[in-house]
Specification:
Order of helices and strands: HHEEHHEEHEHEHHEHEHEHHHHHHHHHH
Number of helices: 20
Number of domains: 4
Number of strands: 9
Strand content: 5-15%
CATH superfamily of the largest domain: P-loop containing nucleotide triphosphate hydrolases
CATH topology of the largest domain: Rossmann fold
Helix content: 40-55%
Structural class: alpha/beta
CATH architecture of the largest domain: 3-Layer(aba) Sandwich
CATH class of the largest domain: Alpha Beta
Length: 479
């Protein structure tokens, strides 16, 4: 029977994508068998569920092709007979753990526990320790859909995907560090969080920390102000198994944070922990980044995600439409993929717009409907320039174009300037360096301005309403 199983795995490998085979099929091994039944060994309950839902019928069909009709069962863990090839089972797992329950909370920060606590009763709310802000320890949650299975792999992202999966499963040629590089909306956050999901699902590590560079900075400042910096250092240096740090470019000019992060990386690397960074710029291109941190960031494997090509955009649309529970006709999918080619977020926005209009208007999804939705998107994006944004902002905030590019640090000038830079980054394809020079400012100033607006938007105050108002004017062409 073992020879039959080897042949089945070989045939399945030829019929499924390589990354699916490496993730879900390769770790499975033959545990036991008799004349009409086989038992396959899986690493954990999560694995078992995925195999039943997605690959059980595939296994049965391949056995039938070989003239064997068998009943297939899956068993978590289990020791195989000697002489057989070892399966990929975490060695430290000694008992079956309940599935990790993921909470959806976009405002929380800090630690995301890799294992769910095995407690019979609901946990009581933990009292806060003196001097510790509980928001920094409750965890920035990984998005449920950001898994390897839900990532559409194309020529633009194949290397980054393979490197991320390899790190999640073990190491990359002896290195435990990865740097994901891409412009906004191309999937670096998806892949970095997929690493965390995979590690937690397979119980490879106890503690996975998922934070942004802004989170890390704010937490460090809070710890310094409240005289608990030792706890902060212990958390990241001693109690962290996997560190996922997003938006590393945010650290530009933040000298104290850079120094602390460099020290933290030394501790983690010495302890063979896994580290995943993501950013919009190469480490050497991030302004005002000290040499110590640059050298450590360059120690890992740097992988870049490019904009998806036409075929990949079609695959993304097919997968997303399936998730929405609707079918997009091929001509409509091709039209959307042809028109929206900047990034994945833009592609998703176009698809959602087409589907929503079709459902709300009770119309079939066709080229005419898609064109009515996409015309506004493509027209506005093609016409929006930095100069147009500059003029609009000056008009709305009652300042002159001479004011907005001046050296003035008055709030009535600085705030509109920051807003204009933020909108330029959102609505044009110009690099941040070019945006800065358009306002007669350095690269670092432009980055700071964009980050300052993004931070204030989270408060959903006056600036939030202003940005929404200005964005609608740009998107509708009413400038």
């Amino acid at each position: 029977m073992e020879s039959f199983w080897k042949e089945v795995k070989s045939q399945v490998r030829n019929s499924v994508p390589d990354h699916c085979y490496r993730m879900w099929i390769e770790p499975v091994s033959l545990l036991d068998h008799d004349s009409d039944r086989i038992t396959l060994s899986t690493p954990n309950e999560f694995f078992k569920k995925r195999l039943r839902e997605n690959y059980l019928d595939c296994f049965k069909q391949e056995f039938l092709k070989l003239g064997k009709s068998v009943r297939i069962e899956f068993k978590t863990g289990g020791k195989k007979a000697s002489g057989r090839k070892k399966t990929y089972v975490p060695q430290k797992q000694t008992k079956k753990l309940p599935p990790v329950k993921e909470r959806v909370n976009n405002t929380s920060r800090g630690l995301f526990p890799a294992r769910a606590a095995a407690q019979p009763a609901p946990r009581a709310k933990q009292a806060s320790l003196p001097g510790i802000d509980p928001t920094f320890n409750s965890g920035r949650m990984l998005k449920k859909a950001f898994t390897f299975d839900d990532f559409v792999v194309g020529d633009n992202s194949n290397f980054a995907y393979s490197a991320s999966l390899s790190l999640a499963q073990g190491r990359i040629n002896g290195s435990g560090m990865l740097y994901l590089l891409s412009k906004t909306g191309l999937g670096k956050s998806h892949l970095s969080q997929a690493v965390g999901h995979h590690i937690m699902a397979n119980s490879v590590a106890n503690r996975v920390y998922y934070v942004t560079a802004e989170d890390f900075t704010n937490e460090m400042i809070f710890s310094l102000k409240n005289n608990v910096i030792d706890r902060f250092k212990e958390k990241y240096r001693q109690k962290c198994d996997v560190l996922i740090l997003e938006d590393i470019h945010f650290l530009s000019g933040k000298t104290a944070t850079q120094k602390e992060l460099a020290m933290t990386l030394d501790y983690l690397l010495d302890a063979d922990k896994k580290i995943i960074f993501s950013g919009c710029d190469l480490p050497d291109d991030i302004p005002k980044l000290n040499d110590n941190l640059k050298s450590r960031l360059n120690m890992g494997l740097v992988t870049e995600i490019q904009a998806p090509d036409f075929d990949t955009r079609l695959k993304i649309l097919h997968k997303k439409s399936k998730g929405l529970g609707c079918r997009i006709p091929m001509p409509v999918g091709e039209y959307i993929a042809q028109e929206l080619c900047d990034d994945v977020r833009q592609l998703e926005s176009g698809l959602f717009g087409v589907v929503a209009k079709g459902q709300l208007m009770g119309r079939n999804i066709d080229i005419e409907l898609a064109r009515s939705v996409l015309d506004n998107m493509t027209r506005s994006r093609k016409q929006i320039t930095i100069d147009l944004i500059k003029k609009m902002v000056c008009q709305e905030f009652s300042i002159t174009e001479k004011d907005i590019v001046s050296k003035s640090r008055k709030r009535r000038i600085v705030k509109p300037r920051q807003v204009a830079m933020f909108l330029a980054k959102r609505y044009t394809d110009q690099p941040i360096k070019k945006i800065g020079s358009s306002f007669k400012k350095y690269h670092a100033t432009a980055i700071y301005s964009v980050n300052a607006v993004e931070k204030e938007l989270k408060q959903k105050g006056v600036l939030y309403e202003q940005i929404n108002y200005l964005s609608k004017k740009l998107e509708t062409g009413k400038v």
